[in-house]
From TrEMBL:
GO terms for cellular component: membrane. It comes from Pygoscelis papua. Residues 487-501 have a biased composition (Low complexity). This is AMGO1 protein. One of its GO terms (biological process) is cell adhesion. Residues 428-437 have a biased composition (Polar residues). It comes from the Eukaryota. The gene is Amigo1. It is a single-pass type I membrane protein. Residues 1-37 form the signal peptide.
Length: 501
């Protein structure tokens, strides 16, 4: 920064008189990385790595030769009045920023940018350009920011911005533009990523509100129009009032400069001051949001508060006016003033405006239509199928649990009275899975009883409930202290399945 300031201060003293430190700075710049490989630093310029600064060097043409490693080239505040096709003799593949502001530039060749295909930032502001010629920037496919403000531009060719698919910001303020071709931006194919358009301080007298409504929302909300001699009308008022309601910076930050001309007023008036003012009597527009899906049929209601409506029509996002009952294509005006849209497509999404003219006031209602990129029946059917499958799986698990735990056991009374009793010696189940093994001297089996008998205290699967275990009669002998098998053991649950160890 100190180097740049000293050079800028010394070069302002007079043409052809370099500052005393300049030779030393140039010698140091030649030792910068890439200096010997890509070429030497031009006279009156300072090279710092891949940055080449020739600002305020009293240059009448682009210095040559330019180092091929240059990524940023600053030629601002010079006298370069013409930018020819051969200003860069070789291809500058690394150049991504070119600054040419404050040069008195009046001519730019249509082939001037053929050698800088990777340029992303181009500053042509504060010059004397009068027109944007055909295909002027078509070689800059990677350009992102284009500054053209403070020129004398009055004509803009419809193809001047062709092939600028990555342009995000376009500054055209402080020029002499009386009409900008906004229809080039309507479908989004020319400048698909444009997010800021500055047309302030020009000579625009009227605005095609229908075309503005057709612009993408991200561009419509960053459109700067202040400082133009616009004619006052209600659509203009409603457009600005809508921006104020949404707290858009293009309206809030420049509210005092958003003025228009009334035939009966000697001086411009604030656009937002037109509410209820004679002779227009404008009212602020209302807005609604409606969601739909592809292929649906929707009806947009024009819920006006005015009585004695004299005329009414709709404007689609594409700028098409639907004023006759019946209409054509997919949009039809109904008898009650509503707009019916059939077989919705993705391009049907956007802002629809209903214009209503009453005996005293005019009113505009906006309806924002959101069209989801799927049909109402496609993904929902998939969701229903998945839901049904999940319910089926849960039901299957429940049935298995019911079968395992709630199926009545096949007790002796169900098998018949002729079945012989179980052997009295130790079984595999009792010896392996019971807490206390059953021996021959254990308690004899109880006779088969009904499951409904409360005396047994039995529960599901033949288990005995807590506190309901029958007490065996007192016995005598060394084995009298033995207890019955644990009723909650695995053998009581899976009584019908032999366990092999």
């Amino acid at each position: 920064d100190a180097m740049g300031q000293s050079v800028a201060t010394g070069s302002a003293g007079g043409p052809g008189a370099p500052p005393p430190l300049l030779p030393l700075l140039l010698a140091l710049a030649l030792l910068a990385p890439g200096g010997s490989a890509g070429g030497s630093c031009p006279p009156r310029c300072v090279c710092a790595s891949n940055i080449l600064s020739c600002s305020q060097a009293v240059l009448s043409s682009v210095p040559a030769p330019l180092p091929r490693f240059t990524a940023v080239l600053d030629l601002s505040h010079n006298n370069v009045s013409r930018l020819r096709a051969d200003w860069a003799p070789g291809r500058l593949a690394h150049l991504h920023a070119l600054l040419l502001s404050h040069n008195g530039l009046s001519f730019v060749s249509t082939e001037a940018f053929a050698h800088v295909p990777h340029l992303r930032h181009l500053d042509l502001s504060s010059n004397r350009l009068r027109a944007l010629e055909e295909n002027l920037f078509s070689d800059l496919a990677e350009l992102e920011v284009l500054l053209l403000y403070n020129n004398e531009i009055s004509a803009v060719d419809r193809t001047a911005f062709d092939n600028l698919g990555r342009l995000r910001k376009l500054y055209l303020g402080q020029n002499r533009i009386a009409r900008f071709p906004l229809e080039l931006l309507r479908d989004g194919s020319r400048l698909p990523q444009l997010a800021l358009l500055d047309l302030s301080a020009n000579r625009l007298r009227s605005l095609p509100v229908g075309e503005l409504q057709a612009l993408p929302a991200w561009l419509r909300d960053r459109l700067y129009l202040h400082g133009n001699p616009l004619a006052c009308d209600c659509p203009l008022f409603q457009l600005v009032a809508r921006g104020r309601r949404r707290r858009l910076s293009a309206v809030v930050d420049f509210q005092e400069e958003l003025r228009c001309l009334l035939p009966t007023a000697p001086a411009p008036v604030g656009i937002l001051a037109l509410a209820g003012r004679q002779p227009l009597n404008c009212s602020e527009a209302r807005e609604a949001v409606l969601e739909a899906h592809l292929g649906d049929t929707v009806t947009l209601s024009c819920d006006t508060r005015l009585r004695g409506v004299r005329s009414q029509h709709w404007v689609t996002p594409g700028g098409e006016r639907v004023a006759e009952e019946g209409g054509n294509g997919s949009a039809a005006l109904l008898a009650n003033g509503s707009l019916q849209l059939r077989a919705l497509r993705p391009e049907d999404a956007g802002t629809y405006a209903c214009w209503v003219a009453g005996p005293l006031l005019n009113e505009t209602l906006y309806v924002e239509l959101l069209v989801h990129n799927f049909t109402l029946h496609g993904p929902h059917d998939t969701l229903n199928t998945a839901y049904t499958t999940l319910v089926g799986c849960i039901l299957s698990v429940v049935l298995v649990l019911i079968y395992l735990y709630l199926t009545p056991c096949r007790c002796c009374c169900c098998r018949g009275a002729e079945k012989p009793p179980a052997p009295r010696d130790d079984s595999i189940n009792s010896s392996v899975l019971s807490a206390t093994p059953n021996h021959a001297a254990a308690v004899p089996r109880e006779p088969c009883r009904s499951r409904s008998a409360s005396a047994t205290g039995s529960g599901q699967n033949g288990r005995f409930k807590v506190g309901g275990t029958p007490q065996p009669p007192p016995r005598h002998g060394p084995k009298a202290q033995r207890k019955v098998s644990d009723p909650d053991s695995v053998s009581s649950v899976f009584s019908d399945t032999p366990i092999v160890v």
